[in-house]
């Protein structure tokens, strides 16, 4: 633990092996191979010559023409660890993550295809991951996030930023934890996003103030970071105030000069910023085309899908965020050609917006349904009618090339929906006798306990410790 008297730290069960000595349980960082499943929109070869879908002069600034964005299926802990080991440390400019909230919720994905409502239950891999994440209560959830936030910091460029989306369940714990990982001095904002409207449904009878907002914690890796202030245009009501105009048609409003000195007024007159009324009284001009309203840390102008139920963006994901939310974050904290990452990419909103704004991107998710949804959404990203109207020449082409990767995924597809058969098959291969009544012990071979590890991830020391605890608790002999 730190010797600094001002140091504050969040402690949870099993954060330390020995809390008196300050020995933390180490975070394992395996290096697993990635397998390229598919390259989408890759350059074509015509007549022996490579033909690019996007010629170099059509790429955004600082965007290499040979770059391929990455969509990765797998556990983000192993994805990030492997990326670090394979040379990606310090390469990402902006990370946005929207981890599952600590709700103990049903993770079935519900969506609509045409007039049909589809429900997709979690796969065995997802279900196991969720059970592990929530099995120990909030301590196991905090540990889950802590390990992944440590990895995000390693991946960030020294001038990089991270936005972490959370709600009332863990937002306050998360703030203390991120102070520890990123540094209290690198905390920039606690953004309040009002996603829902009060006074409807169960909110009208609940015995509490309705919860209609989420937190977004904004941190940077260091003190030198990129940030471009965002502005809102004036409202229709404000525009009505600009009812004066110059001979060239430029609109302005007038205000009294207040305590401006005579010298200052003369300077303003030379700049054409003084308006003289018919009575000869002077006023200061404020032009409509210069009117900017700074966006602060209270975001009430972007509605979630609980309010906008008919949006064409909706993909059927209960926690899906609107593109406008990500657009604001990406424009503020990245430049064209920068690398934007989302390691809980869900329906792919971050990646879609990054693509539209000319950023490079990396995304991953444990859910194969999420990966397929994101893939399809990316294929359609530049075919949007609205974008074509805005700039037909720029957006009439498909998404820039990207690769679909798996991590540590071998011939496991057959077993994903057949966990019992998978366990049975592995035990037979090992010639072990199946056992019941244990949580982590699946069989016995002689006087030895047998545990079958996950299909798509390495066996960790934490898993080994759980097997040992199971043995002791049930007095395995």
Describe the protein's architecture and organization:
With 477 residues, this protein is an alpha/beta fold. It has 3 domains: 24-230 and 295-407, 3-Layer(aba) Sandwich (Rossmann fold), CATH 3.40.50.150; 232-292, no CATH class; 428-473, no CATH class. Helices cover 28% and strands 23% of the residues. It has helices at residues 76-88, 124-134, 138-155, 171-182, 236-239, 262-270, 323-333, 349-356, 368-379, 385-390, 392-395, 419-430, 461-473, and strands at 16-18, 23-24, 34-40, 44-46, 49-51, 69-73, 92-97, 109-113, 116-120, 156-166, 187-194, 213-220, 231-232, 244-245, 251-255, 274-276, 282-287, 293-294, 298-299, 339-342, 360-365, 402-407, 433-434, 443-445, 448-450. A hairpin with a 5-residue loop joins strand 16 and strand 17. Helix 1 runs parallel beside helix 3 (138-155), helix 3 runs parallel beside helix 4 (171-182) and helix 7 packs across helix 8 (349-356). The longest helix has 18 residues, at 138-155. The protein is elongated.
Q: How many structural domains can be distinguished in the coordinates?
A: 3
CATH top level class name of the largest domain: Alpha Beta
Uncertain segments: 109-118, 384-389, 391-396
Task: Please give the CATH architecture of the largest domain.
Answer: 3-Layer(aba) Sandwich
Strand count, sense and barrel status of the largest sheet are:
10 strands, mixed
Q: Averaged pLDDT, please?
A: 83
């Amino acid at each position: 633990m730190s010797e600094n008297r001002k140091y504050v730290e969040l402690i949870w069960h099993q954060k330390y092996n020995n809390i008196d000595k300050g020995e933390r349980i180490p975070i394992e960082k395996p290096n697993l191979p990635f397998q390229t499943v598919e390259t989408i929109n890759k350059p074509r070869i015509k007549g022996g010559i490579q033909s690019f879908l996007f010629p170099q002069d059509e790429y955004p600034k600082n965007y290499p023409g040979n770059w391929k964005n990455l969509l990765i299926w797998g556990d983000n802990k192993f994805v990030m660890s492997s990326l670090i080991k394979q040379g990606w440390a310090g390469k990402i400019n902006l990370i946005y993550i929207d981890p599952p909230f600590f709700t103990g919720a049903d993770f079935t994905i519900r969506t609509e295809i045409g007039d049909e409502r589809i429900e997709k239950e979690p796969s065995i891999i997802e279900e196991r991951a969720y059970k592990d994440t929530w099995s120990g209560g909030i301590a196991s959830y905090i540990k889950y996030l802590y390990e992944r936030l440590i990895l995000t910091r390693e991946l960030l460029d020294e001038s990089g930023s991270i936005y972490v989306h959370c709600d009332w369940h863990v937002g306050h714990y998360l703030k203390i934890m991120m102070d520890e990982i990123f540094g209290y001095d690198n905390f920039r904002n606690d953004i309040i996003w009002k996603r829902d409207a009060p006074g409807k449904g169960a909110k009208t009878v609940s015995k509490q103030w309705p919860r209609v907002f989420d937190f977004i914690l904004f941190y940077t890796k260091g003190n030198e970071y990129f940030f471009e202030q965002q502005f809102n245009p004036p409202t229709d009501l404000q525009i009505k105030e600009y009812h004066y105009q110059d001979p060239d048609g430029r609109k302005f409003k007038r205000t009294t000069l207040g305590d401006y000195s005579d010298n200052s007024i003369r300077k303003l007159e030379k700049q054409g910023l003084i308006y003289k009324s018919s009575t000869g009284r002077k006023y200061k001009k404020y032009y409509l085309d210069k009117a900017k309203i700074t966006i602060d840390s209270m975001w009430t102008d972007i509605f979630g899908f609980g309010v906008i139920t008919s949006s064409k963006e909706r993909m059927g994901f209960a926690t899906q965020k609107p593109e406008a939310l990500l657009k604001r974050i990406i424009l503020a904290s990245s430049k064209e050609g920068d690398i934007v990452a989302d390691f809980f990419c869900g329906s792919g909103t971050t990646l879609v917006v990054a693509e539209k704004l000319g950023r490079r991107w990396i995304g991953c998710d444990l859910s194969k349904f999420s990966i397929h949804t994101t893939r399809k959404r990316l294929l359609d990203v530049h075919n949007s009618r609205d974008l074509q109207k805005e700039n037909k020449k720029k957006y009439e082409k498909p998404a820039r090339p990207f690769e679909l990767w798996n991590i540590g995924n071998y011939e496991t597809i057959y077993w994903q929906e057949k966990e019992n058969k998978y366990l049975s098959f592995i035990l037979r291969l090992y010639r072990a006798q199946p056992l019941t009544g244990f949580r982590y012990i699946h069989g016995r071979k002689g006087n030895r306990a047998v545990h079958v590890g996950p299909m798509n991830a390495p066996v960790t020391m934490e898993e080994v410790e759980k097997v040992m605890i199971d043995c002791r608790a049930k007095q395995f002999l």
